[in-house]
Design brief:
This protein has 99 residues and is mainly α. It has one domain. 45% of the residues lie in helices and 0% in strands. The chain is built from 4 helices and no strands. The chain is globular, with a radius of gyration of 16 Å. The N and C termini lie far apart (44 Å).
């Protein structure tokens, strides 16, 4: 399921999940280098719930039901520049607290 903030979500199925995920990740990154395409791993039951709660009406009202950050598959994501820079800044501040 691909979640879109301002429109209906897109549901895809493939016998070769890895290739599809790689294609979508690289395509997203080529259009939007600043944002990370977040990839979550959820159960089928949770996926059905997200499909029901993330409808167009809810999104228009600014209501988004997304999985918990702990379910992210970070090792499969290509980190966007915004997230990378924020993490780098935090690391630098921890390394040099008096700067």
């Amino acid at each position: 399921m691909l979640f879109f903030y301002l429109s209906e979500d897109l549901h895809l199925s493939s016998s070769n999940r890895g290739d599809l995920l790689s294609l979508l990740t690289l395509r997203f990154f080529s259009f939007n280098r600043n944002k990370t395409l977040k990839i979550y791993s959820v159960t089928s039951k949770e996926l059905v719930r997200y499909h029901q709660t993330n409808n167009a009406d809810a999104k228009v009202n600014g209501v988004y039901d997304l999985p918990d950050e702990s379910t992210r598959l970070i090792d499969q994501e290509i980190k966007g520049e915004d997230e990378y820079n924020a993490e780098k800044k935090k690391e630098d501040e921890e390394d040099n607290p008096f700067d």
